[in-house]
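Data availability excerpt. The first of two example chains:
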Amino acid sequence: MTIWTIARHELALRYRDKGSIVRNFLMPLLLIFILGSSLSGMDAFQQTERESRVVKVGVVQQDTGALNTAFDAWKKNEQVSKYAGFKRYVDRKELETELRDQRIDYGIIVPAREVTAQVPLKLVTIRGNDTIVNMTMDTLFDYFVSEIGTAQTAASLQPHKKIAYGSTKAVSAPNDTGGVVVGTTASRSVSAMQYYSVSILVMFLMYSGMSFGASMYKDKENRTLMRVMAAPIRPYQIALGKMLGHFIVGLAQSAVIVIVSRFVFRVEWHGGWGIISAVTVLLVFCSLCIGLLAVGWFKNQQTMFAFMQTLIISMVAVSGGYALIPSIQESLGVFTIPYWGMQSLLDMMMGKSAAQIYASVLKLSCMTGVIAVISFFLHRKAVVR
């Protein structure tokens, strides 16, 4: 008897359980549709055009010298203040959090001035989800970029030294701005349908461990596990075989949710299968390891169910899976597995840089690794108890 034989047996049992198919494949899609449709009007997910109001712009001003003065003067310009209102932030992380939660519409980062004869000035704009807002602010910011790219502005920044700007082309501005380079970061907001597609996917993948635990208790009650133990097979092989069966179900569940949400609900995931697959694998494996620990720790199925339900619901809640509460997410959610699973997928949806996405996936991997190691040392207790 091999690990794959046990896995096939587990898959056959799951296939015959029609209620399991409804819970794992139809229920999450129904919840995504209900939550995404009913909550799309909330302020956090409102994506209507903002032409009639002043654009909320977040600013991180790291420079305290002449560049800061020039930027302040640009903000007070009548043509700029007519369309944009500015709010200062301490660092980029805080600004991106506010942009993600749609408390602001656009972001600008003015770095500490490091302009020399050879090093150009680098500015960064972070775009939101609204195309009209992005076009408006790009147009307004072009003026500032052009101004500081002129010889007069360069002289005002370093009047004692003539700056030799290189010939570089600004990303946001169509005209040559001397030594000023504008880097644009696409930081889209997410719709309610997108947000709850991610949160429901993560939540249901976390339930894989509870299904695995229920299967273990069932095999113990009908003495199937005892008969399997009589064969020349080790406890870890039994655990891995049953985990493999539920692992395959978790992968199939993720594929169905992503594909149906994409082509039926028109949810834009803005990424390839690579990140989605990696997050799915880590979440399912982590959940199965937690389920293995719970089976070894609790003597009966009811207690295990109560523990897993409480754990999963609590972690998803503080991770923002049910409602956006940034203060709770940033204080408690960062210590949970669902938070980093959601963060990885949301970062991908919002067009964050590869480094930011991989950082979230790495943190999820580390947490999964720790739980996997602990479950490996305690797996025998779950099988032979």
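And the second chain:
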Amino acid sequence: MISVREEKIVRLTTSLLGATALCAATSASALDFEVTHWWTSGGEANAVSKIAEAWNATGNTWVDGAIAGGGDTARPIMISRILGGDPMDAFQFNHGRQAEELIEAGLLLDLTDVAEEQGWKEKINPPSLLDACTYEGRIYCAPINIHSWQWMWLSRKAYEDAGLPVPTDWDSFIDSADELRAAGKVPLALGGQPWQATGAFNVMATALAGEDAYLAVNRDKDAEVAGGPDYAKVFEAAAVARDFAMGSNVQDWNQATNMVITGQAGAQIMGDWAQGEFALAGQTAGTDYDCLPGLGEQAVLDAGGDAFFFPVQDDPEVTAAQKQFAAMLLSPEVQVAFNAAKGSLPVRGDVNLESVNECTKKGLDLLAAGNVMPAGTTLLSPDTTQQINDLMTEFWASDSMSAADAQARYAEIIANAD
């Protein structure tokens, strides 16, 4: 983890425009504008093109800075560029604590004036998304979507090929797994990237231990709960799921999703961004695939997602363009076009989403009912998250680590979490 506290950085300075965000945006000259992100799968690239098209329509030019390999690969590269004095104009992180040290070092643009001018506080739902962009009362990022990990995706083809009904909850999935494997299918698709194992575990924790236990561990850093009987059930279930995932033999998350799309695998535990891959493959929710929020056990969303941050620059025209870009991200047109392609939910509750599929409707219903909890990225520091990733990678890769041993190490990490 690159620590900005330990770097000898001379803070970049800028002349903030005296006009409001909209006036600044109107007066900004058109320019090349580099945006770095890690949206490189087919569905993700389709979604990000919607933002690029909207930006190019303003007269500016989108310069794509996609970094393959996911957030774990991309974030250190982005941070290194900022610390090294070669900042991009905008970059995607998950909203939460990932950019905390950059904010503390004064390296990120304050967007409070844009947020106030655009009325973000009144429009963004749930409010926790804007809270995650706020540091000491100032706003430093523009949330673009609501993503939730709390989904299990099921292939109708895989179960039909095996002559089995599609599971409706975690227990029926477990009950069908051996027969599914006997039919030549991988019961649970799981890629090799560390964050995938951690994400799947957290979904199981919410579904099987319950929301209160999940929050006690991740929000309150309660090591007793992490090492107790509720989480023992989760680790035991994860050990079973580990066996069902053997044979995936893929690295990237979208490759695992493709196993579900093609009927090679029965299911995948993955965030709602997987829907972008189903859509790109021409598949329809309720016809080609099914979705279980909370594994069919605990229907709740963990409201995380993506946000854009902006490195401080010493060029007033760039600063104006950054604020223009931030305002554009929250426009109704961009919110609908991007999120429909991404499989995520918009951060604005006042946009028209009549055409969304049945899985997205399930997510919207949960959001409307208030069945929402904060995402892990907003609760744990990057350092703690990395420690958990390392543990989960080791645990899911081989059955040599028992559920009890993994739980003991996990509880120790939580006990020392910041």
